[in-house]
Amino acid sequence: MINIYSGCRVCTIKGTQALVILSMISVETFKAMCLALPEVQEVTHGGSPAFRTKRRIFATLWPDQNPANAAITKPSANFGFTPEEQAAFCNSAPDSFLPVPGGWGRQGWTTVKLWKVKKKMLESAIHSAWYGAAPPKLQEQYRLENGLE
Questions:
Q1: 74 to 7, 99, 101: CA distances (angstroms)
Q2: Which of 2, 31, 43, 107 is the 20 to 30 A CA-CA neighbour of 59?
Q3: Strand pairing partners for 78?
Q4: What is the pLDDT of residues 58-95, one digit of tens each?
Q5: Does residue 19 carry a pLDDT above 60?
Q6: Is residue 68 part of a domain?
Q7: Sheet containing 76-80: order of strands
Q8: Is residue 3 part of a domain?
Q9: In angstroms, rounded to a whole number, what is the distance separating the alpha carbons of residues 74 and 101?
Q10: What average pLDDT does this structure show over 4-25?
């Protein structure tokens, strides 16, 4: 089965297709979605909230203007994806996802427009970025607990 979220490590492992629900995502909802994942801490990065595992930051929230994409003046977030995940998300929802300009974007960093993205797509993106930032033992634990092996 072809998965519309083929860029998401978690969905690809599970092999399921998520239901898409249209809604605007608030800053509070975004924070709650990130903090719901295991071993996530909220920290400050560049003056804005960021979310990290012990290993690294996987998402930065920009409640106002996004310095990585100056044309974006509404709530957005940047995710650390692999370049393959970035391509999958940007191709699946080009109105919601776009590469960060320059070198960071070439490494996979991607902006999501919170006022445009569908909740299930955002959930998939958060899980994928988190999974990539999680330590290997936490990745393994997550796969086992969610039947993804």
A1: 25, 17, 17
A2: 2
A3: 60, 111
A4: 999 998 877 777 778 889 999 999 999 999 999 999 99
A5: no
A6: yes
A7: 41-45, 48-52, 57-62, 76-80, 109-113, 97-99
A8: no
A9: 17
A10: 47
User: In this structure, which amino acid lies at residue 42?
Assistant: E
Average pLDDT over residues 119-140: 96
DSSP tag of 25: P
Q: Total structural domains in the chain?
A: 1
pLDDT band at 108 (very low <50, low <70, confident <90, very high): very high
> Is position 69 within any domain?
yes
Planar angle of CA 19, 20, 22, nearest 5 degrees: 145
Q: What is the predicted pLDDT for the residue at 38?
A: 95
Tokens read off for 120:
């299930």
Other C-beta atoms within 10 Å of 26: how many? Answer: 13
Let me know if residue 1 belongs to a domain. no
Q: Name the residue range of residue 48's domain.
A: 9-145
